[in-house]
Amino acid sequence: MPAYFVTGTDTDAGKTLAASGLLARARRAGLTTLGLKPVASGSEAIPDGLRNADALALQDQSRPAVAYATVNPYAFAPAIAPHLAARRTGVEVRLADLSDWLRPLLALERDLTLVEGAGGWRVPLNAREDLAGLAAAHALPVILVVGLRLGCISQARLTCDAIAADGLRLAGWIGSLVEPGLSFDAAADDALYRDNLATLASTLPAPCLGVIPRLPAGTPRAMADSAASCLELPDVH
Fold first, then answer.
1. What CA–CA distances, in Å, run from 43 to 56, 57, 85?
2. Which candidate, 3, 1, 8, 2, places its Cα nearest to that of 163?
3. Residue 77 in 3-state DSSP?
4. What is the biggest distance separating any 2 CA atoms in the chain, rounded to whole angstroms?
5. Which of 95, 90, 85 is closest to 43 using CA atoms?
6. Would you say residue 78 has pLDDT above 90?
7. Where are the alpha helices (DSSP H) in 65-183?
8. Phi first, then psi: what are they for 95, rounded to 5°?
9. Residue of 99, 102, 32, 96 lying closest to 70 (CA atoms)
């Protein structure tokens, strides 16, 4: 099972819940796991340094365990676009540096390694490069997390087009019910909900790996375990 790059249709599409859920599913199967978050904004300061909640959730699902710095080499406090957060702190995050960080981690050959992006596919890394370039540099197949809300069908299809234009393979997509709304509220209109999912399934060029419902608030580990029950691992032979 190769490593994958996890991206979303937009910010807050549910990437971390999907990624941690896949890692939890792999752990249930007795597989070794590694979750990585190259760049994270919206981090909090603790005595040991800045810590990002998404990166911590991925670290918690990594077995054998790894240090936080292994999971998240670039953490920034402002909850804004990563390239702007980096600029405010006088740091330039370069694709070459991230590639050097990632290469030995991929060489660990964990049974499942997930590299979670930030925001959507075209989020800038700096003035010249996108974070998607990290997936391209290592030819990582992509898992797309679709935030299920009004407008997501077009967003998902456009993202798939961009992934293909970058020469990468879409390994699968995951639906994530991130907010209530008629289009994706089975309780309000089950037929419309199913029709929307059917449209995604028929128009996206990869299998659906599962749909994560709106989960009750809980610890990141508990939510990952709940999400794991809704997901299938990609490319299992």
1. 10, 13, 10
2. 8
3. coil
4. 51
5. 85
6. yes
7. 68-71, 82-88, 95-106, 132-137, 152-165
8. -60, -40
9. 102
> Quick check: is 15 catalytic?
no
Catalytic member of 25, 37, 83, 149? 37
| DSSP one-letter code for 227 | H
**Residues 178-190: tens digit of each pLDDT:** 887 889 988 889 9
Distance between terminal CA atoms of the chain?
Answer: 8
Pairing of strands 49-51, 44-46: antiparallel
Phi, psi for 67 (deg, rounded to 5): -70, 155
For 122, half-sphere exposure in the C-beta direction (CA atoms, 13 angstrom radius) is: 10
What is the percentage of the chain residues whose pLDDT exceeds 90? 92
pLDDT 10s digits, 109-165? 899 999 999 999 999 999 999 999 999 999 999 999 999 999 999 999 999 999 999
